[in-house]
Amino acid sequence: MGRDSLARLQRNPVVAAVSDLSRLGAVIRSPSEVVFLLRGSILTLPEAVQEVQAAGKAVFLHLDLIEGFSRDSVALEYIKQEIRPEGVITTRANLVKQAAAAGLEAVQRVFMLDSLSLETAIKSLKATRPHAVELLPGIVPRVVERVGRETRLPVIAGGLIESKEDVIAALKAGALGISTTKEDLWYI
C-alpha cells in the first residue's frame, strides 16, 4: 500500500468493509481510517467515495464486485480520473498490474482453500507485487504469517473474522490489518 494507507493501518488496523452503501453513515462515524467499498455501481460510487473521503478516510473499491465497469485498463483510468479512490481490490493478477500502472494502489485478494491454493497464491503475489494482499479467510494465523514472510507484502486478513480474538490472532500473526463487514469490530 502507499505510505499514507500504511500509516493509516498502523494507527488503526481495522478496515471497515462495506457491502451495502446504505451503511456509509456507520463507516463514516467509525474510527476506521481505511474503507473497502465492496459493492456499488458506476452511478453510486462517485458520491460514495467523495463522502467517505470527506470524512478523512482512504477508500478502496472492489473491482470484481462493483457494477457497470469492464475489467480492463480503460475502466481503471476512468476510476482513477473520475471516482478518485486511493486504490482498488481485485482477485485478478492482470488488474493488479494495470491498477499500479494507472497510479492506483492495488490490493490483491486471495482465497486460501488448501495447500495448493496457498502455493499458487504465493507465486502469484511474488509476480504481481501488489501494494498489499488481502487473505481470505483471515482466521488462519499460520497462513497469514507465511504469506507475509514469503512475499514480504503487507497482509490484510479478511473473511470469517467474527470476534476481537480473531482480530488479535491475525495481528499477532503479522497481519498489518484486518477487514470486516462486522460493524461492532470497527470499534475495537
Descriptive report:
This protein is of the alpha/beta class. The protein has a single domain, classed as Aldolase class I (TIM Barrel, Alpha-Beta Barrel). It has helices spanning 3-11, 24-29, 45-54, 73-83, 93-101, 115-128, 141-151, 164-172, and strands at 14-18, 34-37, 58-62, 87-90, 105-111, 132-136, 155-158, 177-180. The longest helix has 14 residues, at 115-128. The chain is globular. The two termini are 22 Å apart. The relative contact order is 0.15.
Task: Give the overall silhouette.
Answer: globular
Q: Kindly name the structural category.
A: alpha/beta
Name the strands of the widest sheet in spatial order.
1-2-3-4-5-6-7-8
Cα-atom radius of gyration: 15 Å
CATH fold-level name: TIM Barrel
Low-confidence stretches: none
CATH level-four homologous superfamily name: Aldolase class I
* Helix-strand pattern: HEHEHEHEHEHEHEHE
% residues in beta strands: 15-25%
Name of the CATH first level: Alpha Beta
Overall average residue pLDDT: 96
Helix content: 40-55%
- How many strands? 8
Per DSSP, the total helix count is 8
CATH architecture: Alpha-Beta Barrel
